[in-house]
Design goal:
The structure holds 2 protein chains of 2 kinds. Chain A is an all-beta fold. Chain A has no helices and 12 strands. In chain A, about 40% of the residues are buried.
């Protein structure tokens, strides 16, 4: 079945540091890929997405590129802020594999220190 | 994006009882889903709520334990039946949009079973 593997945290960085959160996937069909973010005390929000190979999703300074050859969708940001502290989930949707719902990774807790 | 509300936002229940969670969307949507997020864990898809027909359950989830209704395109309920402490989780509904496989999530219902 489909699966998503992402680096487990917590990941602690200083403000203005470069961020990479690794995400790799296994899918039967041709999935769409997503990053969701859960800020403290808030609900789950869609951060960015990519629907086909080589697509780059971007939002709020975050970027991720759909790499089919390495089955990866790593999340990056050039300069993180304290307000970026949250839990980040990588996810995929694979209707070709028979499921319309999302398959999530375990989540990465990001802590940004001033 | 659609505005999604859930009731109740939280509840504390006795083991052996049942709780029904409501999900209301402010516009008609084709796809609605129910997920569970156990403490400190990722999200797991419980089922797809189908309008006018029985829900489609994922492996490990059964209708007798998690009956779902979807009477129209804006509303769904999930019942957690014969609860045990292992059912303590956050339960979230999500809706699928016209954009390919993009999903938006409700605020969640935090359930504690004692």
């Amino acid at each position: 079945g489909d699966s998503v593997t992402q680096m487990e945290g917590p990941v602690t960085l200083s403000e203005e540091a470069f961020l990479t959160i690794n995400c790799t996937y296994t899918a039967t069909g041709y999935p769409s890929l997503f990053w969701y973010v859960q800020y403290p005390g808030e609900g789950l929000q869609l951060l960015l997405k990519a629907t086909k190979a080589d697509d780059k999703g971007s939002n709020k300074g975050f970027e991720a590129t759909y790499r089919k050859e390495t089955t990866s969708f790593h999340l990056e940001k050039g300069s993180v802020q304290v307000s970026d502290s949250a839990v980040y989930f990588c996810a995929l949707s694979d209707p070709g594999g028979g499921a319309d719902g999302l398959t999530f990774g375990k989540g990465t807790h990001l802590i940004i220190q001033p | 994006s659609a505005v999604i509300s859930q009731k109740p936002s939280r509840d504390i229940c006795q083991r052996g009882t049942s709780l029904t969670i409501q999900c209301q969307v402010d516009s008609q949507v084709t796809m609605m889903f129910w997920y569970r997020q156990q403490p400190g864990q990722s999200l797991t898809l419980i089922a797809t709520a189908n309008q006018g027909s029985e829900a489609t359950y994922e492996s490990g989830f059964v209708i007798d334990k998690f009956p779902i209704s979807r009477p129209n395109l804006t509303f769904s309920t999930l019942t957690v039946s014969n609860m045990s402490p292992e059912d303590s989780s956050i339960y979230l509904c999500s809706v699928g949009t016209a954009v390919r496989h993009e999903q938006y999530f409700g605020p969640g219902t935090r359930l504690t079973v004692t």
